């Protein structure tokens, strides 16, 4: 029998007290690969079942197909393609991918390598003399937002404003109604509006004066799928920013934390920088930034592992649990950068497979290599560190590191 109610295990996973180490609870959850919850939603926790669902055309990413749409459904004006199904999803993704770049075409990301190295170098220069740094505030947080500004073509003088909006939006995603002032939520809503308006303004300008950046290309492209409307461009730019920010922050921070917990691997990376490629894949499996895809909606009744999931049900996919499934990965709780056959679920799978994967990988690879090379004798100040609230996008809120042997 696959369907049992496991409300307690899920409740404990979502509870903040398990944020530092949810993995033993995932193991408990995997005893019931398809678990029906009291509210009628389903939680899927094993590798095979998660992969099957991500490839099943009867599943929708469009919130409007849930029989009980969750909060936020009405807030969406023009949904971005992460929340759309084929054919709309495919059309918009193709149009964005044409310019974004690898793996399918050489695009803007391919030419960004020198910019990535220079941003990383500059951030490390800024904390070179300090005895203690916060890897999140001093490095991992500013890095991806600066990269996305370059990519979109946000003028340098507007970057500080752009950073502030992003901070407010990300802060509001981590909102806790029990402890946080409502102001935090309101700031997030206002920042979303301001950001949309700002990007809309840039798109208008780029119609007349195109540069070599993503917004210009999207605004002026007449490719095989035609042109995106201005609203679609704004929704896409917002998506790239939101989907690509905290995820990358968390991968870099979780990465450094994992290296500091495995000093022999850190030393190997210092001596053998190429190790960073398989090491980054192993991080995406072992300490991934995205732990949960909070919902997919069933278009029709579907059967998963002998369980019938009725049409309209909400399905929650426990990606981080799937990547630790012992039926798929040998010795899954071991951090092993030499692991072969590492088809993790860190970027999802199927038609919504992370669009920014090639960029996120390069950002993380350059960041970790340079941090390990340049930060002298790094040591954790506290372990475990304090985590952000979210069980979905999981990562430390600060990561204090001592350096220079002090
Ligand atoms: C989708 C993870 C970085 C843009 C996804 C999905 C995951 C994911 C798990 C699948 C969501 C689903 O199936 O519903 C990550 C991780 C990242 C990262 C772990 C960093 C380490 C980025 C970056 C960008 C980006 C840097 C863009 C600049 C997107 C977009 C989608 C997506 C646009 C939607 C794709 C679609 O619907 O076709 N990402 N992401 N991501 N990601 Fe990422």
Automatic annotation (TrEMBL):
Pfam families: p450
Cleaved signal peptide residues: none
Keyword Heme tagged: yes
Entry keywords, A to Z: Heme, Iron, Metal-binding, Monooxygenase, Oxidoreductase
Keyword Heme carried by entry: yes
Database matches in InterPro entries: Cyt_P450 (IPR001128), Cyt_P450_B (IPR002397), Cyt_P450_CS (IPR017972), Cyt_P450_sf (IPR036396)
TM stretches of this protein: none
Recorded superkingdom: Bacteria
Similarity remark: Belongs to the cytochrome P450 family.
Protein's recorded name: Cytochrome P450
Native source species: Kitasatospora cathayae
